[in-house]
Write a structure and sequence with these properties.
This protein has about 575 residues and is an alpha/beta fold. The chain has helices at about 35-40, 40-50, 85-95, 115-120, 180-195, 205-210, 225-240, 255-260, 280-290, 295-305, 330-340, 360, 365-380, 445, 455-465, 470; strands at about 15-20, 50-55, 100-105, 135, 155-160, 165, 200-205, 245, 275-280, 315, 325, 350, 355, 380-385, 475-480, 485-495, 495-505, 510-515, 530, 540, 545-550, 555-560. Strands 1-2-3-7-8-9-10-14 form an eight-stranded parallel β-barrel, surrounded by four helices. It has a six-stranded antiparallel beta sheet with strand order 15-16-17-22-19-20. Helix 9 runs antiparallel to helix 10 and helix 9 crosses helix 11. The model has no long low-confidence stretch (mean pLDDT about 95). It catalyses: Endohydrolysis of (1->4)-alpha-D-glucosidic linkages in polysaccharides containing three or more (1->4)-alpha-linked D-glucose units.
């Protein structure tokens, strides 16, 4: 195995960690997390094994959508620090081997952004065409609303000029008109600026929405929406050769493939659009599989993943900062997940998702929780963690909407979980209480416990990084075996091969496997071994490549295929 190859496409086997500076660590004790606090906790990420830090929006904001309503794309919100503090973070993270990326939110701005303030003053404003307007009343658009509990349509009447402006999200977030070359130039300036500051790329918010207007009509400079994404990727690559665009594209696989830039679907091109995309389909099928204790839905999703360009990658995840969307499931399937993992209506959101973290959804069963994270890191792709997952944080349903999972990080068992010394009423968000509160779940205690969730996730990260085939395999191989609750899959790259077994059910089983390529050489060489990377056990395949492996209820194993003469460390 040529490990040097893995350095060229660093995102193929990275470990990405997402956090909101506002809720991570407050160093000046004003109740709001800040960049100095994040810098002071960077060694926690380094010890965990994180190689890429994803920052949620840190820009000046009207703070009506947790930072996603931006009023200045070229600055740092003064509550969090200043540009110099961000530079210190990037420098310190780089010293620990961690790249930094940030949210690129260019579908919309805040209605308090100077562009929109100018645009709504007059139809002759130079910024008028930065946004999407209609002089006539648009038809009913209630079926296009992203947040149905907040909006009844995607158009709002603006009294100042007597026209309607479009907002696919909240009315205080008017859509940018990406068909306007001036808007595209402004977005390029944003990308170029932060790349120059030192970011290694961007997580691109709501990609299908901001592409929707790129080719709005005949004669536009951009003929197809995807041409704009290609040009944005090319611009970033010219500025920073190994920077990435990691896109939020919650669409069926066949449509996602197009956002990689693989137009013909053969998976042979290098790809010239998004570098990475989140596997929303796989994530939703995972939760259906958990609800049923049947691996079938997830196995089906993995089998249906389309070929993707050689340099592209799937970003796999269990939880992110939004609601846990289940919109790609059928109504009956969604009802199954709700009943099993979030039966209280207060745990649900928008009729399509859950506002919970994984441990409470699984009843706090450490076997199931660890099995799921073992599964996450074994899936072909790049794992993405949301802050607090490494210690098993829970949600706070007393917080509004999606904020239930964006509670302050729990560092110690002290007041406010060690996040801040400010009075509780001044905190950026309410601290989780009860069984998942900081007195029970925190970093400090788990750092000293070899059996803790934190120690377990550190082991997963280390084993994942030592197994580049998990990130570089071009396809996932689902292995035949008789147990519906068990997922058996294998990833192979060059001469490295690892297969993983995960039992989504509570009953112990014996898993028979047949590996046709795991037979000894014709000259009577040694039998092929399967060495468990997570437990001190191993099994030997027989002369026909057959072996039976025991698996406990909610059990998990990573089995490296070891042939005679292998020099890989185990």
């Amino acid at each position: 195995m040529r490990l040097r190859d893995t350095g060229d496409l660093w995102w193929k086997n990275a470990v990405i960690y997402c956090l909101d500076v506002e809720t991570f660590m407050d160093w000046n004790d004003d109740g709001i997390g800040d960049f100095p606090g994040l810098v002071q906790r960077i060694d926690h990420l380094a010890d965990l094994g994180v190689t890429c830090l994803w920052l949620m929006p840190f820009y000046p904001t009207a703070d009506r959508d947790d930072g996603y309503d931006i009023v200045d794309f070229f600055a740092v919100d003064p509550r969090l620090g200043d540009a110099g503090d961000l530079v210190e973070l990037i420098r310190t993270a780089r010293d620990r081997g961690i790249r930094v990326i940030a949210d690129l939110v260019v579908n919309h701005t805040s209605d308090r952004h100077p562009w929109f303030r100018s645009a709504r003053r007059s139809t002759e404003s130079p910024y008028r065409d930065f946004y999407v307007w209609s002089a006539t009343k648009p038809p009913d658009t209630s079926d296009q609303v992203v947040f149905p509990d907040q909006e009844s349509g995607i158009w709002t009447f603006d009294e100042a000029t007597g026209e309607y402006y479009r907002h696919r999200f909240y009315r205080h977030q008017p859509d940018l008109n990406t068909a306007n070359p001036q808007v595209r130039d402004a977005i390029a300036k944003v990308v170029g600026y932060w790349a120059e500051v030192g970011l290694s790329g961007f997580r691109v918010d709501a990609v299908p929405f901001f592409l929707a207007d790129a080719a709005k009509g005949p004669g536009d400079e951009i003929e197809r929406p995807h041409d704009y994404l290609k040009s944005l990727r090319a611009f970033l690559t010219r500025r920073t050769g190994d920077a990435i665009l990691m896109g939020e594209v919650n669409l069926p696989y066949e449509q996602q493939r197009q956002f990689f830039g693989d137009d013909d679907g053969d998976g042979e091109s290098d790809g010239d659009e998004l570098t990475m995309q989140f596997d929303f389909v796989g994530m939703q099928q995972l939760y259906l599989a958990l609800a049923r204790q049947d691996a079938g839905p997830l196995a089906g999703a993995l089998r249906s993943r389309p070929p993707i360009p050689r340099d592209a990658q799937w970003a796999t995840f269990v939880r992110n900062h939004d609601e846990l969307t289940l919109d790609k499931l059928s109504e009956d399937e969604r009802a199954e997940v709700f009943a099993a993992l979030g039966p209280d209506p207060d745990m649900q959101l928008y009729g399509r998702g859950l506002r919970r973290r994984l441990p409470p959804m699984l009843g706090g069963d450490p076997r199931r929780v660890r099995m799921v994270y073992s599964l996450l890191f074994s899936l072909p792709g790049t794992p993405v963690l949301f802050y607090g997952e490494e210690i098993g944080m829970g949600e706070n349903l007393a917080a509004e909407g999606r904020l239930a999972v964006r509670t302050p990080m729990q560092w110690t068992s002290e007041r406010n979980g060690g996040f801040s010394r400010a009075q509780r009423g001044r905190l950026a968000g309410p601290v989780t209480e009860g069984g998942y509160g900081p007195e029970h779940v925190n970093v400090a205690d788990q750092r000293r416990d070899p059996e803790s969730m934190l120690t377990f996730v550190q082991t997963l990260v280390r084993r994942y990084r030592e197994s580049p085939e998990l990130g570089w395999a071009t396809e996932v191989e689902i292995l035949d075996q008789p147990h519906a609750a068990v997922l058996a899959h294998r990833s192979t790259w060059q001469d490295g091969s690892t297969l993983a077994l995960h039992n989504l059910g509570d009953e112990s089983v014996e898993v028979p496997l047949h590996l046709p390529d795991a037979v000894p050489d014709d000259d009577g060489g040694e039998l092929v071994r399967l060495v468990d990377l997570l437990h001190a056990e191993e099994w030997t395949c027989d002369e026909r490549g057959r072996v039976t492996v025991p698996l406990a209820g909610y059990g998990y194993r990573w089995l490296r295929v070891v042939r005679e003469g292998s020099r890989r460390l185990l």
